[in-house]
Specification:
The chain has 6 helices and 3 strands, in the order H-H-E-H-H-E-E-H-H. It is mainly alpha-helical. Helix 2 (about 35-45) crosses helix 3 (about 55-65), helix 2 crosses helix 4 and helix 3 (about 55-65) crosses helix 4 (about 70-80).
Length: about 150
């Protein structure tokens, strides 16, 4: 499939983000996990499986640009679902079931991402990563300004 390259800008970024989120939502269907919960679970897993609750909250808040109260709700939901476990020392840990469910979903996502950009030249991926990282940093700076 060959498409005419679009001009880099908000429309292209937005369309890409919407398409990727639709793919993720399809993979999450039937798992009982929402997209914000997926991010929370993922950041716990890739953070080593156990994180300080305040640190996890900070990471998730920064990743999906929501307030800490919203992140706390996601942690509570995942804990109630048995995917995370919170202890009295302020630590949050992924449970065996949480790890297993995360692994199952990741296994469905991996071949899709390979299809999407696995064959692109490394230098193109590096350039895209640099540009999008700069745009993301600038967007976060705008959001930090009242």
């Amino acid at each position: 499939m060959t498409t005419t390259p679009q001009t880099f800008g908000t429309a292209l970024i937005g369309q890409t983000e919407k398409a990727l989120n639709a793919i993720l939502e399809r993979q999450l269907a039937g798992t009982g996990i929402t997209e914000p919960q997926w991010v929370t679970l993922t950041l716990t897993v890739v953070g080593g499986g156990t994180l300080d609750r305040a640190e996890l909250t900070r990471r998730v808040s920064g990743a999906i640009q929501v307030g800490r109260a919203s992140v706390e709700e996601r942690i509570t939901e995942l804990t109630a679902a048995g995917l995370l476990q919170a202890d009295n020392d302020g630590r949050v840990q992924v449970t065996d079931e949480g790890q297993a469910r995360w692994t199952r979903v990741r296994a469905t996502i991996e071949p899709i991402t390979q299809t999407l950009w696995g064959d692109l030249p490394a230098e193109d991926l590096a350039a895209a990563g640099r540009v999008l990282s700069i745009v993301l940093d600038r967007a976060k700076a705008v959001l930090a300004t009242p």
